[in-house]
Records
---
Amino acid sequence: MGGEYHDYTCKCKKPKYRSSGITSDYKAAISEYVWNGFEANATKVSIEYTHNEAFGVKELIIKDNGEGINYNELGETFGAFLASKKNLLSLQMKSKANKGKGRFSFIAFSNNAEWHTVYKDNDVYKEYDIAMSSDKKEVIDCSEPQLSEQNATGTEVRFFNINTLTVENMSFEVIESALLKDFAWFLYLYKNKDAEIIVNGEKIDYKKYINTDLSEKVMVTIDGYRFEINLIVWQESISEKFCCYYFDEKNILKGKRTTTFNHNTINFNHSVFVKSDFFDDKENVIDDHEDTQINLFESQDEKKILKKLHKEIQKLIEKKISVYLSDKAEEAVEAMITERKTFPKFSDDVYGQMRKNDLKRVTKEIFKLEPLIFHKLKQIQEKSLLGFLNLLLSSEERENVLTIIEQVVELSPQQRADFSMILKKTSLENIIDTIKFIEDRYKVIELLKSIVYDLTKFANERDHVQKIVERHFWLFGEQYNLASADQRMQKALEQYRNILYGEEDVTAELNPDAENERRMDIFLCNTRNVETTFETTQEENIVVELKAPRVPLTKKVLRQVEDYMDYVRRQPQFNSELRKWKFIAVCKEVDDYVKSQYKAFEDKGKVGLVFQVDNCEVYALTWDDIFKSFEIKHKPMLERLKYDRERVANELMAAVSDTEGREKADTLTEIAVAQL
């Protein structure tokens, strides 16, 4: 071990051996030796072991690059057992009472321990060895210090004659977990000094125990004293109370107190570490006694400083809790929607989604103000609360949400102001979203009008009209989802079935038909069910036939649409009475034959209906019908917003004023397709 042993008992204070004072847990014992290294100002502690043929541990070595064990202080270092421990996650905290103790813990797993240590004495490096055995509890054998050829201090302790440890006991997963419980906070606080623990060449990772995104260090100056405040947020719950620990400049623990956020209702698991010379030369400056904070400072000025310090700590915790709850609020609302199904249902159109987003925003803010409002609610209670909140937000009583919340939870003036602002902000956001939504839709309408009416001879079905409709199928109803576009009937029906039922190939089931070769311009199918009589529902589908603007809607065009209908009706897998089909032809204008068909079906009260059989309907519409329908649906909102449609149209036309003919049609189509 580096020095020859003398056959004598070291002339230092003999240890007072008390078996009850030594841990029997090998992981706790190893932790003692790691802590000894850090107490000696080490930045790196390594644990290495070898195994024997039976996969038992043959030898265990713990090294550190600390200051070593000064021979002249050996009596103090080995003279007494560890008498007191300050625990955080079972961690030994450094205090005047525990420095260097725990040297005898090896008896938990080994019969013999040998130390080789290098220390600095008056700028001279010296080294010597220490040996202990479990059967000679009163004897510490040590060699005389010698000049060392090494130019670095440190200590290596080797354990042998190990009789209880196995390779499984010493696996990295087991040892890392045990050490992180004790040292995660220390490794985090001293990361700038490269503090690390290595187990057989692999470094343990404190991020497994500490949320580094929420943890933060701040420096504050109070009446001339500098305080380093470290908030550590744990990844999981801890058994200890959430405490604030106070250290002096020498990293000696001087006291602790529970934080004002000690209730674990929101699982914000945290600890605070404060370091300052303000605590130098003071003993037990703060302590807890039956949840009462006892301040042992005598000076009123010092008490004022401490009070200001606690406010700074509270401010830091509140800031991080706000961030933490923002993330948790997102998770909580998502669980209401997807897991517990307590969130109100909204329509799939843009208006419905705006209302849904409004309720989500306000619910998140309420959760952040007081999570207990939703804590342990039964599903029916949560559903009723959210439904009631939704009704208020959608009415003129929106501002009363704040009044109701104040009946449930006491809000600070700042919280009240913040929540009031959220109600106004979310309302404003909805208005802005609505304006943007209307403007985007109107841009498409104006662009399509220009292509259909102004560029009739240059625009065609495939390159212009169809491209726009494919992107903006809401023109035919918000309830429809685009299933396929410009595909042959055969392929369209295959895709239709695949979307609804997950079937990928129905080719073998379809009847061969010449009409399979015909192309369907747009094939839309809805995702909603239409209620019918006898408490049943229907699946509603829409097929659209588009023509170039210059092509009128004639009997020939209408016959093509009816051919699509006949094909669908002949397919047994598509002719259930629980399916509803709408076939729509759209052109710039209709001929007299189509107008006569309007007359024949006007008693049905459906605009554009020209034919009906079983569960199928055929419609003949002009583009003006489409545009007017949009305007009628949006008129109330447009009037409330005083929307300037002419301005939108003029801006769009100005953007393409330098282009002509087909190029202009192409440009307008590109702009329309790019709109949301």
---
Amino acid sequence: MSDLTTQRTYAIVGHGGCGKTSVAEMILFKAGATNRLGKVEDGNTVLDYEPEEIKRRGSIQPGIASYTWDKNKHFLIDTPGDSNFNGDLSYSIMGADGVVFVIDAVDGVKPLTKKIWGEVAKAELPSVVFINKMDRDRAEFDPAFNGLSEMLGIRPVLLYYPIGSKEDFKGVVDMLSGKALMFDDKGGYSEADIPADMADEITALREAMVENIAESDEELMEIYFEEGELTPELITKGLKAGVTSGELVPVVVGSALENMGGQLILDTIQQLLPSPLEHKPWQGVEGERASSPDEPLSCFVFKTLADPFAGQLSVVRVCSGTLNADTTLHNSNTEEKERIGQLQMSLGKEQKGTKDPMGPGSIVTLAKLKSTHTGDTLVAEKDDFQIAKPELAPHLITYALAPEEKGDEDKVFAAIAKLLEEDVTLSLSRDEESGDVLLSGMGQNHIEVSVERAKRRSKVNILLKTPKVPYRETFRVGAKEVQGRHKKQSGGRGQFGDCWIHVEPRASGEGYEFEDAIVGGSIPRQYIPAVDKGIQEAAQRGVLAGYPVIDFKVTCYDGSYHNVDSSEMAFKVAGSLAFKKAAEKGKVVLLEPLMTVTVAVPDSFMGDVIGDLSSRRGKVLGSDSQAGVTEVKAHVPMSEMLKYAPTLNSMTGGQGTFFMEFSHYEECPPNITEQVIAENQKAEEE
């Protein structure tokens, strides 16, 4: 087992397009794990290998790699940044001891950056920032750096300051050593003197850096006040302690695509991010367990991948104890035994077997586990410790799936169900009203890419349809003294059922109520539940457009029966007829579901977003602006939100995020009611 004190396990996170995979490729190339610098644009990176990732030029699932740097074992998790594909980010960072947070020098801190940083902060993981793309047009270091404190509320410590930017970016100033480091074209650098025109600025920045480090520790603060300076040893010690506690976040700059800064970020990871032994205790469903090789074995499955040759692969983080090959483990979630064969180390899609025992912090791939899924805990036999699963982001969009050819419904269901084993942010269900197979996910791209993968792997053609909106119907005006009478005589025993009912509206959300007000036995006691059942079944089929009728009360107060011809079936039909007559006599209206929608956008887009929500018949409930980001809350009809994700994306240049949840039902406007009724009639005719 490698020396755990020098081992590093970290996740690379950041918003979509900031260059996380490029940073990972630079790290792997610099560390000698790969022999070429892969480029996302060329589709030849080690970590984005799925056909859909190559086509989209972006990650859709975490990429896993292990490598050695300066004889120390490192494990890397490259996470997707697109909000369509990072709904399980909380699971990915469960596998890490620290984070490399990538910021784009062109875009700086975006609203989605803030959301992703929130996940890192919630996990309380020590972090390092890498400001990427310093060589690009429109790259601006100051806004990107200042956004770290102003928008994310973190205390950044600038370790390296850029020399030049855009096409003139050629090196950095090492703030600790006071030397200029000039990049060469092979990913290395040479020391030089700081350019004279930067000397005063660097002096001021270094003072601010030392002061920041001193402020994170009372003892250092006292020394700094007394002596006006800290020794290099004290600076390093204070910086390491501040990073571990989460007080300080070191900042490194570079350009991953141009192979500038690989050694700097690798050294920073090694020197400042924590070892697995420094990880806080693992919280279990009951109790906790220290991140130590001396504790009993526990492994958390944070991702499941599909391999065309090896089948299902479970990616696990060893949390405590030591994992050995050829052992039997216990899945404490399913209570099943799992036979562990070979332990495998990942480098993208390549798997390499190892016979080494793996201690805390190790990321290992296990093949062909029978009953283990993402979020499960594997422990030694007779142990029941279970690591608490993190929360997942709520689903944002749902589509109905249909086979291109009739009769292939089960094939479609099976093809998508396989994806659910890999992607815990997908959800598959059937709509009882429409019979549709429904796929819910994090956005339109998420659903489309998932269906693409299912089609490619299962060779079944799948059509995507906008799901039916679950409209409802209700009584606005009730009906008094309505009779439902069913009489049928056709030789032999006949059918007879007769009931009288009142129907009255109830308040929204109060549901259905049936009151038995029969006195004197006008309907025998055994037939009254049948009247209730007949009414409920008729209400389920709807009156106006085939949607269930909700929130009404029925009082059954009179009726009659026949000693021979009455039956439960006859009274069920009578109840159904009474309901239909009441619907004709009273007033039934169509209801539409309203969603509570929360949209977060940069302040500059607030007017556009509010205008768009209003055009969707939305009622804005309020807005709140903080650190350049406005959060707008509104009630919007669900029918108007089914394709909102791509609209928001194009309106805000990908900087807007939203989530929604069901709020309540409201009466539809007449034009919408007419449209829904017409669509229902057309569907029935077809």
